[in-house]
Amino acid sequence: MTGLGRLGRLVLIGVPFFWLALFFLLPLLIVGKVSLAESTIGIPPYTPLIAHDGRGLKLLATAANFALIASDDLYLRAYLGSLGNAALATALCLIIGYPVAYAIARCQTGRRQLLLFLVMLPFWTSFLIRVYAWIAILEPNGLVNQALTSLGLIAAPLPLLNNQFSVELGLVYSYLPFMILPLYGSLSNLDRSLIEAAADLGARPLRVFLGVTLPLTLPGIAAGSLLVLIPAIGEFVIPDLLGGPDTLMIGKVLWDEFFNNRDWPVAAAVAVVLVAALAVPLLAAQRFLERGHAR
Amino acid sequence: MALLEIAGVSKRFGATTAVDDVTLRLERGAFFGLLGPSGCGKTTLLRMIAGFESPDSGRIVIDGVDAAGLPPYARPVNMMFQSYALFPHMDVAGNIAFGLRQERMDRRRIAARVAEMLALVQMPGYARRRPHELSGGQRQRVALARALAKMPKLLLLDEPLAALDRKLRAETRLELVGIQERVGITFLVVTHDQEEALSMASCIAVMDRGRLVQTGPPAEIYERPASRFVANFVGEVNLFEGELTAGFNCLALAVTGFPEPIPLPSGTQLPKGGAAALVVRPEKLVLSHAPPAGFAIAATVSSVGYLGGGSIVHLATEQQKALKAYLPGTAAGAFGRGTRVWVAWPAEDGVILMQ
Question: For B236-354, CATH number?
Answer without folding.
Answer: 2.40.50.140
